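step=predict obj=Amidohydrolase family protein n=639
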Amino acid sequence: MAARREWDTLIQGGLVIDGTGTMPMTGDIAIKDGRIAARGTGLDPAKAKDVIEAEGLWVMPGLLDIHTHFDLEVELDPGLPEAVRHGTTTVLMSNCSLGICFGHQRRNGEDPIVDCFARVENMPKPVLRKAADLATWATTAEYLDHLDTLELGINVIPMVPHSMLRAEVMGLRESVSRDPREDELQRMEALLETAMGEGYVGFSTDALPFHFLAEDPNRKTKIPSQFGSYKELKRLTAILRRWDRLWQATPPKDNPAEVFRNFLLTSGRVHGKPLKVTAVAAMDVAANRNLVKLAKILTRLLNSTLFKGHFRFQALAAPFRLYWDGPVNPLAEEIPELRELNEPDLEDREARQRILADPDYQARFAAMWMHGKQGGLAGFKRKMRAEQMAFDRDLAQMVFHSGCPADWVGETFEDVFKRYQVSFGMPDVIRSEEERAAFDALPLMATSPDVGEPYFIIGLFQLYDTDLRWWTISANRDMEVVKKLLTDPQIFPGFNDSGAHLTNMAFYDGNLRCLQLAQADGMERVAAQVKRLTRDPADFIGIEAGRIETGDVADIAIIDPEALKAYDSDAGLKFVHRDVFEHEQLVNRSDGVVTHVLVGGGLVWTKDGFTKAHGTTKLGRALRHRDTGGSATEKIAAE
């Protein structure tokens, strides 16, 4: 007699790394109705409809990506394939004060989604408008209901974003031109309080001083969150503290005193109860080696018995490689002379050309570019890696990728610049007719080869504009430093920025890179890192995820450790055309590393690609905080 089929799926014989941090053990996992039905060894495969043979593979909870901007993509492609394929099953959205929980917010000719997202997250305006057209809800409750209707291929966690909250209450123009009235501040508090009661896990803000709006008349104006006073921030985060919810923050990095004051809001000793804070970002910035040290010191101090905080920086498990479209890039926004070239729309080449041709602009650009390269105090700071700018303007670290003569692809700007300088007296160094034509066409140097590197850069931007694609690594050049950040118990791995910067960066495989680094140190370290990529952030956020105990939702990733060991992330980096965006996107391809991904018990990815269920069947969930019952007042009384 055939055995009764008790389970939908059995994962058999894998090395189970369960997210507790304990050493993994070989075992089986049975799944029924989307949940873990049994765990053990020797479970009978005849009792399962489907069997996944996992011998030699790692079986773990689905990975969490805790810093994403998938809010818009989930409207266009709810399967979120670029996350799923890397073993990620849960993403935290609405970071950096930007999101769509209040709908498109189009009022009085304003288009906040386009205005706020375009430059901060480097997303093309047509893509943003396409997503905004779909955002027809108007309240935080309606947004959650809407997410529940999508055929999610992954779990999504929305937050309430500060910039959108201000725009909702004040209107976009008013939110960046004046302080809120008391009744408006109370309205913000009420909306945030309501959202916490509905199950939102937290609130995101942004204070990085180079995040600007993208539409007229606001192109020289920062996003609304930047205008929130400390009083406003304190009142809004007090609501989070009462509900024990999360504050995701980016710091006002150029003002250390303000950074400390803001992050001191985490202190249970100062404010009576700790506030959970996760902040961007602990990275080893090439131009300023002190930032990563200060981040670690600040974390230790805030979490010490002196302040009793609950504070975590986020870290990226990869070199911070950024691709530039000519002069357009998020790092450019930090530097006024480069920011001017980012203010026009991406398609407005004529506007950039006018700026580049202006002699006054050229002089300012040259002064900026050479700052610290010609001795003096600035030169000493540069030598000691203590500059303020994240982009170090080092030609030896800038690499041609495409949109230029074929001879240049893979070469550094320094290689080409030096060859150009000597080509006037030694024409034999010119490698091809294509290179000769490019050298002849450089508009500022054809008659004056001695004018120096800033004019070489200006010339390239004039000649190629955004057709020129190049990259640089501005942080995390030393992976030993990165490794220490990723293993620091008071820092979370996960500043991947997934879903944003469509053509500038791709760290969708950040969790896999983190595991690859751990793998080199043995299984004990792997088990610890799996915990830090699953259970730890899930507990910090306050959601039911990151676990594979009996009864848990079956969100599971299965990884081939040999393929992970051999994985070369750079080799899998490519530009692809995404039909849902009608635009190009920079992505990773780790195919072969992740052999299976299950979301809600349903198989969405195998080493052969996406399954039929992915993006067509609702398997993911819009996650609420695990404790959504009762008011904040009732919570305080219970405590």
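step=describe
The two ends are 57 Å apart (CA to CA).
step=end
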